[in-house]
Structure formats: structure tokens, C-alpha cells
Write a structure and sequence with these properties.
The complex is a heterotrimer of chains A (524), B (377) and C (324). Helices cover 32% and strands 24% of the residues of chain A. Chain A contains 17 helices and 20 strands. Chain A folds into two domains: 239 residues, Rossmann fold, CATH 3.40.50; 271 residues, Rossmann fold (3-Layer(aba) Sandwich), CATH 3.40.50. In chain A, the strands form four sheets. Chain A has a six-stranded mixed β-sheet, sandwiched between helices. In chain B, 75% of the residues lie in helices and 0% in strands. Helices cover 69% and strands 1% of the residues of chain C. The chains are: A alpha/beta (524), B mainly alpha (377), C mainly alpha (324). At the B-C interface, α6, α12 and α14 of B face α3, α4, α11 and α13 of C.
Chain lengths: 524, 377, 324
Amino acid sequence: MTAIELRGINKSFGPVHANKNVALAIDKGTIHGIIGENGAGKSTLMSILYGFYEADSGDILINGQATKIRGSHEAIAAGIGMVHQHFMLVDPFTVLENVMLGAEGGALLDKGIDTAREELERLEREYGLDVPVDALAGELPVGLQQRVEILKALYRGAEILILDEPTGVLTPQETDQLFRILKALKDQGVTVILITHKLQEIMAVTDGVSVMRGGEMVAHRTTSETSKEELAELMVGRKVLLKVDKYEAQVGETALKVEGLSVIDSDGVPRLDNVSLTVRRGEIVGIAGVSGNGQSELLEALSGIVAPSKGRIELNGTVITRESHLDAREFRDLGVAHVPEDRHRMGLVTAFTADESAILGYHRNKAYNGSILMDRKAIVEDCAGKMAAFDVRPPTPSLKSANFSGGNQQKIVLAREMARKPDVLLVGQPTRGVDIGAIEYIHKNLVSMRDAGAAVLMVSVELEEIMSLSDRILVMFEGRIVGEVAPKDADERLLGLMMANAAPDAQEAAPASGTAPASTGAEL
Amino acid sequence: MRVISGTVPRWVDVGLIPFINILLAFLASGLIILLIGEDPIEAVRILIWGAFGTEEGIGYTLYYTTNFIFTGLAVAVAFHAGLFNIGGEGQAYIGGLGVGLALLLFDNSLPFILILPISIAASALFGAAWAYIPAYLQAYRGSHIVITTIMFNFIASALMVYLLVNVLIQPGQMSPESREFAQSAWLPFMHEAFAWFGVEITRSPLNLSIFWALVCCVLIWGFIWRTRWGYEIRTVGFNETAAVYAGINPKKIVILAMCVSGGLAGFVGLNEVLGVHHRLLLNFQLGYGFAGIAVSLMGRNHPVGIIFASLLFGTLYQGGAELSFDMPKVTREMVEVVQGLVILFSGALALMIKPTVERIYFILASAAARRASAAEG
Amino acid sequence: MDEFFVLLVSTLDATIRVATPLVLASLAGLYAERSGVIDIGLEGKMLASAFAAASAAYVMNSAWMGLLGGIGISVVLALVHGFACITHRGNQVVSGVAINILVAGLTVTLGIAWFSRGGQTPALTNDARFSPLIWPGAEALTGVPVIGALYSEIISGHNLLVYVAYLAVPLTWWVVYRTRFGLRLRAVGENPSAVDTAGISVTALRYQAMMCCGLLCGIAGTYLSTAQNAAFVKNMTAGQGFIALAAMIFGKWRPVPAMLACLLFGFLDAVANRIQGVKMPVVGEIPVQLIQALPYILTVILLAGFIGKAVAPKASGIPYVKER
């Protein structure tokens, strides 16, 4: 029997077609995986199922009944429960209060508390979901918080449980426990939908799997009849390699050396775990990985935005540690330039004019400043020069940064960061949200920076970009560098497996070719 | 130029929508005047006559304008750093204390040429100090700057009462006021200044501090848009993440912006204490600090806008006072009503009409485009 | 000793009366902030309701109509605040400031237009006021030492609104911690996404909280003009709305501690009035202004984390924008 069926679901956000004619059918009492790269449309689809968005067109059938879901309350009423990637818990509430919220069983809490307690005990027994019911949710480890989320859904009578990237925050042990719970749920007749990008999880726990790419559902497979390799290929797709003209790298001395670098975020979660790598002048080192695996933190630590908790960074011979307390401007003074992953969040100030954005981070340089006032003429001329050099359109320094297209905004950021001929260039997602013409242009410039002797470290989720630009490829997974491959040996399949940490032979796939030194800290 | 679809042109966003918001505020004010049984049109006529009809009226109008410029600029500078300084009242009060103390110390010993810079420095320094503490607590101790600045308004008020009742009061006098400063130390009134050139105008509290207010407008414009500190303030205000990326320390910027803001508010003390009352007294700042919020919102945080908004509120203050003679039911407090409505419509409800205006704009724009293409075809 | 006892009783009696509007307003602030809406417009709502209550009570010669008018206008203003901050995601502080200034002007303007007494309302008499309720046995017990005085002065002899205020404290505690509404209220101020994903409307919940806030502010304002005083006087709240806000923060957004903070601040006020000009042993004369400023100073120190930690509801001040 089919627990849930989707027919022809479409959803657009302005010009972005996030879900294209998506169809899906999942049998009752099974665990079904949905995989895809970032931005493939998985989250949009699940948000439609949980009533956060309404689909532009298409039908949802629950147990064969056409059902309209116009809000979370209707999703709950239809028996759908969701465990969000970011937990929806009220930290100062007890587990019991969190579970009751929205299903209190009456205007007064007294009676509801007793029934909720009994019901929770029953659920815990049945599914092996042990949770300290009277503990504060915010004080529980993430693994237990996730169980509370599952309990919340079950308490509301969910028969279909959606889990969005549930293992991202879990330790391997907690992941195993989660999978045991999911299997117990399945045995009790609950239908589980698991959204993930990790192939081994799909193989370990699901009965069926659907693959999304570019907003479309590209394949449905029975898990026992497919393989990681096939799924990786389906997920990434066969893309035509963009041709980038470049010569063999002329590698010089080491410009950036990182040893044992770790970063712990403000919530105490380790984001970067003992990373070591080197980048030499004249080479582009590409970092592949599904986003959220520590790449952002790596760039931020190397550019002085976040302080490392452990480890050292050696920049042109200057050693930087946690105790150095250097800010981003002091890193720039040491020869680092940084094109951030998200230009709207970080790379420029959208409310600034282009010429103001074009000096962000360099605004204290002598070239732009008199003794008190800034030298407007120099700033505008400088910006006009950068715009001409990088073919920014329109070449109007007085135009608001927000009014340029994505590609032109990115060119402004690149022009700014490349202008001072940095020794080390950090680049995050160089072509995200950039039109085709600009992509080629940006790639050419990165290569010419390399050829001019800069050490370039590039993070990208676009595998073709990684493969066509890099002289060496490192793969990150959960805050660690899990492998190194030479571009000539790399293909989507192999990288896809490594990015999911599912390639036991990754090390062998990275023979020390002419460009790859041994000092990458890649240990599996 | 590629304009992202779904955005309206700049003039709609920064011109039309704010204008409609202010219009709504004035419409609501007019309704209230109707409600209490007076004729709003007639009220406006009397108000404008009261504010500009006589030399004295103009003098008062510009005297009020001076205070509004100072507090408006103060609120604006903090706004540019993404901060909400509602402690202008307290900072103005303490700024006045600075001037007063300086004068009580030096009025008989120093020439005016020294008194003036000392007074300016003292009012700025005291106002800035009163803003520094909330700023520090916000930056380094995480306390909410809005609440702390409110509390500091009341603390300033209690402090001033204590000082004037117990310490600075002129001996042998009942009312809590300091002694009058030596006349040689007074900031000249405008009518005095005009008299130097042989021009006679009617007496009014308007004094030379209005020139300082205008100088401050230029200085603040330069500071915010032409110096690296202003650049850093605006960066933090718009996008704190980008600021950290650029190596700017947001904590230091919070303190810098609040100190500049507090200093500007402190200049109200210059106008009132050195320019008008020539002694330290209670509540000379009353209402100007809060009015600065309306001025800044209306002037869109830009010195030029602030000058016009200040002039408008100066007109309302003076005209409102005149109005109460002709229309006993419409008093100075009506100006507070207008202020409140301006803050409500231009501030809190600033986004209310945006979707409607945008929809109308797009309907008109597409209709115009259709007509144009029809004409071509 | 006897003299000291009399002084003590009268100070405590004054404390209770001074703290009454503070208690009501701080509970009002508590509902708003627990739901995630910062309300610095408590002052304005109190002032508006004080005016409306005095006007209505005078015109209809009924304290009850006064109460109705006071509550009515306060709820309307609370809904205006909600309209700006919840529906239109306006800046909550700006909206609060706007309401405070608007009300400060409007009460006087309307007062002059309606009553022509320079912004005051005519004095209220008898039926138009809430008068003291003498409890049974209070007369009989006056002669009994200690207990008699305590009973007749502190327990008995207050007007109805005083009892309403102090009963509102346990009631609020019960609502916040023992009802479904309270559970949702606490949740929406901490994590509105959690409430939204549980299928509950964040908007509706916050509007309900604003209604509670308006109701309590309305009672507080009514108390000022029809019970504690016998007329509306220009700016008669004189910062009490902000003291109430401070008390709510001091009580860490919990009803009973907030009430205790109000009593402390009320006590400071009562003491300040009694020690003016009195030389104390050891310290000498304590400046009355210092005691008056103490609530604000203590709140600043508390907020800076120097005594305990005052953590506001996590989502307060942030308009809720639905994210996927």
C-alpha cells in the first residue's frame, strides 16, 4: 500500500524552478531515502509536504487520498511528522513540555501532562527511544535532542516521518542508534523518509531511494538493487567539462602551511577537526565537499574571521596561532586575499555603492585615505579601473552594489581581492549564482593569478569547477580532509564517493603524481 | 544596467514611500484637530504665521530647530551603526551639566575666546561619556542598549536634581538653579550679533549655536560618508558579518558611534545653558532627545534631511505655541502628537504601504509599457 | 519603638499602594515580552488609560465605566503596537517610542479640548472613584496591638484595584505555567519556529499576548487616575511604565519575582519620601534622588550581568519571518 504519493509537483521562487514536475510514491512501512546535491530541491519538496510552502501545481496523496496541505497543522493532521535539520526545540522547556507543545490535550496542562508522560513512556518502550523526560531540552546532547524531535512527531500520531539530513550533527555511534530507531519505527508500520547526501546511509538503512538533481526527480531505485557508484553518478550527473586553458603548474615555495587546525563554533560544536595542508605558489588547490563539511570554517580561519581553537597557520613564514589575535585586516597585511563564499553575507555591502564595496577590507589603505578624509577621487578611479579590468557591467562606480547582477558583483569582489597581487588567494564558490559568460572569465582570472605566482586555495561544491581548475584536489568531510586526488585521476563518481566518505580506496586513488606532495594530512 | 525584476526605482523607495508615510502622519494629525472641533487648514495657517510671521517667531522657530538638529544628528549617527540611541534626553542633560560646570569654573577667569571651545568640548565630552557606559555594556557585557539608555535617562535626571538641589544651587535661593554665569561668558544672542553689524532685530532665544548646529551637519556628513571611521560605522550598520570580514571590530564601532551620538546630543546643553539660560537649571532638555528620533526618521538619517525635518519640527513647536492663543484647544502638546504619528508612520509602520505602492507602481508601469508598445505597433 | 512601628506600618502601606500600578504594568510587559514582543510603550498605555478612565468616570460618574474606558484604550494601543510589530514587522522599539510620545501629547490635547483645565480632568468624587474597602473586623481589631494595625492598615483598607493587582500575580503565574496558552506563550518568545512547526499560529499567539498586555496596562492606568488620585494630571505616569519594565527585567520575566521587584521599588519610593532631610546614623543624610534612581541603577547592573544573569526570552525584539 502506498503511504504517500506525489504527482507533478512544481514550485518556483521567482525565476528559480526549485521543483520540476516531481513524482514520488513511497510504500507504507518502508524507509525511503531521497538523495541529491545541495540545491537539488530536496528541502523544498519536503517543505511542501510539511505545509511550509504550497506547491504551484501537483497533487499530494496520503494513503491514496488526495490531501491539501496548507500549513503545518494540516500536515500534522494528515499524519506527517518532520524532524528538521535545525531542531525546533524550545531550549528552556523540559522534554515533556516540548513534546506537548501544540498537542496539549486541553486548555489546562495538568491532565495533559499525565497523559503525555504515560504516552511518552509507551513510545519510549516501543521504539527504544530513551529520553530523560524532565530534563531541559537545551541541555541534552544533540543525539537526544533529535530523539525528542522524533518523539514529538510520534506523539502527534505521525505515520509518515520525514528526517532532513538527520545525521549531520551526530557522532557515528549516535547515527547507529538513530538507524536502529528508524528500523524499529518501520517495524511498527511507520513510513520514514530520509533526506541525505550521504550514500552509505542510504545503503545502510533504506528500502528504496529516489535521486534528485536540479529540481527534478531523476531516478527511483530499490536499494538492494543499486550501488553507491550508480547513485553517486545519478546524483552528480554527467556534465560536460568546461574547458579551461591552462599550462602545467609552475610550483614555487610554500606560501600557506596549515597544521592541526581546529575550529569550535560558538555552540561548542567542532567545525574543523585537525586539518593540515599546504598550498604552494603557482598552484590551485581545490577543496571538494558537500557544503557544511567545514569548508566555510576553513576559509574563515585562514582569513582571520574566526580564531582557531587549535593548530597553527604559517603564512609566508609568519606563524599564526590562537594567541596571535589577528583580525581579517591583519591577515590581509600578511598577503592573504579572500573571496568569500557568500558575497551578499560577507563579500560586499549591498547597500553600498560599487566603489565603496570595492574597498571593503582595504578601506584603511593609504591609497584611499588622506589624513582625515578618504580620497574619494582615488577610490572612484580605482573602482573604475577595476571595473574596466574585469569587464564589470555597467562600469558605474556610483551604482548600488545590490543593483549589479550576481556575476558582476562577483567580479567586483574578485577584482578587489586580486588587485593587490596577494601571495595567498582564498576563494569560496567562485562562480555561485554567476552566469555562464562570467564563469569562464572568472576561471581565466584564477588561472592567471596562479600563473603569476599566487598560492590559490579554492572551495567549491561544483565538481566540474574543482576538476577543471585544480592542480590538486582535497576532499573534506565533517571538518576533516579525507583524501587527496590528482585532477587527472578524478571523476564525479570517485569524488562523489569521497565526499560521502564512502571510498575506502580513496588514498590509493591519490597516487603521488607530479603535483601532489605528501604533506596534506589526508589520513583515512 | 540589469535591474533585478520586482524592484521599484530608487525614487519610489527613498522618495515616494517616505513622503506618503509622512503625509499619513499629517493626515492623522489633521483628523485629530477635526475631532477636537477645530479647522485643521486654519490651524496650519495660524501655525505658519506664528512660526514665520514675525521676527520673534522666526527667532524662536530657529532656536527650537537648533536643538532638533543636534538630537536628530545624534539619533542618525547611532542609526548608521545599526544602534538605537533613545538616551538622547540623558545625554543632552549631562552635556548641559558639562557646559555648566565649565562655566562655573572659568566664566570669570577666562576670555570668551577660550570659554567657547571649552564649552563645546565639555558638552560633547559629558554627553559622550553618558553614552559611553551603555555602549560599553552593550558591546562587552551584552546588555540591551535600548533598555540601558532608557535607564540612563532617568539616572541623569535624578543626578541633575541632586546636583542642583544640593550642590550647585545658588546659596540663599529657593529654586534649584546655579548662579548666573558672568555676562562676558554668554554665547551671543542672534539679535546681539546682528546689532554688531547695525542691524536691529527683535529679541529671541536664538543664539549663535545654530551656526554650530549647521557646522555639525557638515562635519557629520563628512564623518559618515567621507572618513574611514564613518565607512566602518556604516559597514557595521548594514552588515556586521561583512564588517568582520573586512577586519572591522564591531564592538569598537558600537562605542565610537555611541560616543559621537552622545556628544551631539550634549550640544543641546550648549544651546540651552550657554546660549539661552546662562545658568544650570532643571529640565532644559525636556523632550528634545525623543524628538530627535522623529527628526532622524523623517530626515532619513541624512544631515540635509535632518535640517529640513528640524525646521519642520521647529515650526511646529513655535507655531504650536502661537496656535494655542488663537485656538485654545490646540496646544504645544499637539506637536507631540504629530511627532508620535511621524515616528509611528515613518518608523514602525514604514513597511506598511510598501507592498501596495509597489503593486500600484507595477500596474501603472506595465500599463505604460503596453501603451508604448501599442503605439509602436 | 512604638513610633518606629507606626512608621513601619505606614511605609509598608504606602509601598503596597505605590507598587500597585507597577505590578500591573510589569505583568503586562511580561505577557508581551514572553511572547517575543518588546514593549517600551507600557508608559504610554498606562498614561492613555489613566486619561480615558478619568474622562469616562467623570462623564458617566462611574468608576466602572472608567475602568472599561481605561482598558479599552489600552487594548487598542496594544493592538496598534501589534499591528506595527507583528503584522508589519516594524521595529518594536520605534513603535513603543511612537506610542509613548503620541499619548503624552494626545492626552493633554484632548484633555484641554474636552475639559479646558490645562490638560487635567475634573476631580472625581465618590462613585467615580474606586474607594477603599474596609474588611470585616478591621474596625474591631484596631485596638489590638501589632496585629490590629497590620490587619487594618496593610490587609484591609485598599481599593479594589489594589487587590486585583496582587491577585493578578498568582493568576499570571497560573496562566503562564499551568495553561496551554501559557505554554505556547513561553514557547513563542523563545523559539517561534518551534511553535510554527507545531502547527500553531505565531501571529495569533502574539496578538493574544498583546491583548493581555493591554488589559493589565489599562487597569494600571485606571488605578492611577481613579483610585490613587482623583483626576488625570498631565504626564501622571512620570516614568512608572519604565520602572515597571525595569521590575520585569529585574524579576527575570517571572511573575512573582517581578512583583517582589515592584514592591522593592515601591518601598524605595516610600522610604525616599520619608527620609528626606533626615540624618541617618553613620551615613548621614542619604540623597533622596539616589534612592529614586536606585531601580534604574540596579537594573543596569543586573542587565550587565554583575548580579546574576537576566536572560530575555530569546526571540524578543525579532519579528518572526517564516523560514523553511
